[in-house]
């Protein structure tokens, strides 16, 4: 069965790789946003040079890593959840449930394929552009990059698991646009996309660090920037894995509840 | 099928067409509003979501100011003033014209043909398509921040400054509307690249929230002379706040917003017509 889901991953990757112009447009937009945010961070770090324990170079690296991961983590849409909601609305979900594949496993495989492409197609270039314009603090050690890759992979699974829950809400709500939007906003804020979580004041920062969204940017970025090294880096990965398992489990429970509700026209 | 350009001859355009466009726009908008209201819970959530999304934007700025007294030499109320004007103008444009970014989709799947066949101006139909009342959330949030900023900020309220504020909001909205129309026209040629316009619309709105002094000089030049976003709020706001502008432009430029917006609208209108004329339906 691994071969089957593997094939879905590959198709997910290829499906998104088809839209080259859209990918280029996305890279352009990420780069523009990276520039704007970079300048606002420079103004901030200019006055508070070690805000959140980052140097200015680290803060700028954080900005560009964030822009690079934005599409892969589907933080502003582009993921599978709207498609799945459409299928729930139209009743096509019944066909999906008939397939000899698990609903969650199918979408996870497809979404990992998508994320893999977005990471290469929309992740690498903005970071390269950022490195051309600003002095970034990118690490030299291959081990750090490996840990970063693992942190990103686990973050993608957490991102999927959250969006799967969001998608399932369509079984109860019919029009899920509102839930999708609220989940984007919460995700953007608590992942650290708007401002690094270690620059959040006091208790808000601690709470934000403990929530699953931090796996989508803050945790991978801290691993890359060497803020979390050695045993602490492993702890970071364990934190992500823990949330991934818990949220996938919750998705499985909710999927069970939801599919018992399915009544397709005609019987 | 080759699409016959609408009203193919420019000569057909009578003053009545503008009125007709507005009337069609209002009809389509009313229809979409009724449709939205049949999913009331979803409308409330999306409107709130729209409000909250932009509110978190502002919260980010507030969080930044929990560490510093001033950003680029501007205090929090002053940045809030920039934020409020930019967000209100952009919110209005997004409400009125935000649907333009779905044109590429319609070109790709061929449903634009349906709009072309109706005896109603295409621009009005595309702009009103799936009109999203929830986008009022952003306008409300922008106005709230602006209200707070006006209460806290130190502006010498001369008659000129009092008049300049509402004009600025309208001019800003018009410039963003022009960007939306130009972006829509662009999608006739490169529908898949629809996202590029986000960097001018959403990106522009984000840029204008911060003082111009924060950015590199060339970037400021670019948004003054190439895409004239500086006229949305930077130039008039700097005057109201009594701050010098980093490019050192002559003073009258601060009042040039209205003509600049008119030129933008005219140019984007021309671009739109060129786009419609070059349109070929899928399959032809």
Automatic annotation (TrEMBL), chain A:
The chain crosses the membrane at residues 21-42, 62-80, 119-138, 144-166, 173-195, 233-254. It comes from Actinacidiphila cocklensis. InterPro entries: ABC-2_transporter-like (IPR010390). Keywords: Membrane, Transmembrane, Transmembrane helix. Pfam families: ABC2_membrane_6. PANTHER family: INTEGRAL MEMBRANE PROTEIN, SLR1174 PROTEIN-RELATED. This is Integral membrane protein. The lineage of its organism: Bacteria, Bacillati, Actinomycetota, Actinomycetes, Kitasatosporales.
Automatic annotation (TrEMBL), chain B:
InterPro entries: ABC-2_transporter-like. This is ABC-2 type transport system permease protein. The chain crosses the membrane at residues 41-68, 80-98, 159-182, 249-272. Keywords: Membrane, Transmembrane, Transmembrane helix. Coiled coil: none annotated. The keyword DNA-binding does not apply. It comes from the Bacteria. PANTHER family: INTEGRAL MEMBRANE TRANSPORT PROTEIN, SLR0610 PROTEIN-RELATED.
């Amino acid at each position: 069965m691994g071969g089957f889901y593997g094939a879905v991953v590959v198709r997910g990757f290829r499906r998104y790789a088809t839209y080259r112009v859209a990918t280029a447009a996305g890279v352009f937009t990420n780069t523009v946003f990276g520039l704007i945010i970079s300048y606002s961070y420079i103004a901030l770090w200019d006055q508070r040079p070690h805000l959140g324990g980052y140097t200015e170079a680290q803060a700028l690296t954080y900005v560009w890593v964030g822009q690079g991961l934005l599409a892969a983590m589907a933080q502003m849409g582009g993921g599978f959840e709207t498609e799945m909601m459409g299928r729930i609305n139209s009743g096509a979900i019944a066909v999906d449930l008939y397939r000899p594949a698990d609903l969650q496993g199918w979408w996870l495989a497809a979404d990992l394929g998508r994320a893999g492409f977005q990471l290469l197609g929309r992740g690498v270039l903005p970071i390269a552009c950022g490195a051309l314009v600003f002095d970034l603090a990118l690490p030299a050690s291959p081990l750090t990059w490996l840990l970063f890759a693992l942190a990103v992979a686990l973050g993608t699974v957490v991102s999927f698991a959250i969006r799967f829950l969001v998608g399932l809400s369509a079984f109860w709500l019919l029009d899920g646009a509102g839930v999708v939007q609220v989940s984007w906003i919460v995700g953007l804020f608590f992942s650290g996309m708007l401002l690094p979580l270690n620059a959040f004041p006091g208790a808000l920062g601690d709470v934000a660090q403990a929530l699953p969204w931090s796996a989508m940017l803050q945790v991978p970025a801290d691993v890359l920037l060497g803020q979390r090294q050695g045993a602490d880096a492993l702890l970071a990965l364990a934190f992500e894995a823990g949330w991934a398992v818990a949220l996938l489990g919750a998705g499985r429970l909710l999927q069970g509840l939801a599919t018992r509700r399915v009544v397709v026209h005609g019987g | 099928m080759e699409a016959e350009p609408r009203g193919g001859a420019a000569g057909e355009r009578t003053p009545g067409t503008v009125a007709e466009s507005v009337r069609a726009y209002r009809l389509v908008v009313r229809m979409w509003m009724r449709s939205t209201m049949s999913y009331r819970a979803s409308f409330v959530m999306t409107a709130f979501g729209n409000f909250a999304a932009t509110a978190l934007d502002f919260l980010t700025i507030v969080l930044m100011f929990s560490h510093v007294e001033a950003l680029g030499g501007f205090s929090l109320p002053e940045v809030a003033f920039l934020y409020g004007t930019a967000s209100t103008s952009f919110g209005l444009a997004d409400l009125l014209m935000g649907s333009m970014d779905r044109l590429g989709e319609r070109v790709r799947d061929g449903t634009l043909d349906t709009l072309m066949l109706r005896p109603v101006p295409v621009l009005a139909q595309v702009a009103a398509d799936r009109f999203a009342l929830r986008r009022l959330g952003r306008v409300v949030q922008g106005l709230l921040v602006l209200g707070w900023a006006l209460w806290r900020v130190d502006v010498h309220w001369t008659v000129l400054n009092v008049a300049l504020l509402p004009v600025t909001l309208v001019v800003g909205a018009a410039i963003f509307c022009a960007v939306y129309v130009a972006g829509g026209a662009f999608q006739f040629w490169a529908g898949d690249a629809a996202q590029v316009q986000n960097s001018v619309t959403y990106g522009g709105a984000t840029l204008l929230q911060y003082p111009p002094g924060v950015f590199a000089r060339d970037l400021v030049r670019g948004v003054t002379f190439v895409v004239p976003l500086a006229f949305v709020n930077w130039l008039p706001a700097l005057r109201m706040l009594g701050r010098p502008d980093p490019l050192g432009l002559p003073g009258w430029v601060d009042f040039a917003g209205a003509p600049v917006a008119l030129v933008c609208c005219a140019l984007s209108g021309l671009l739109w017509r060129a786009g419609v004329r070059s349109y070929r339906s899928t399959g032809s």
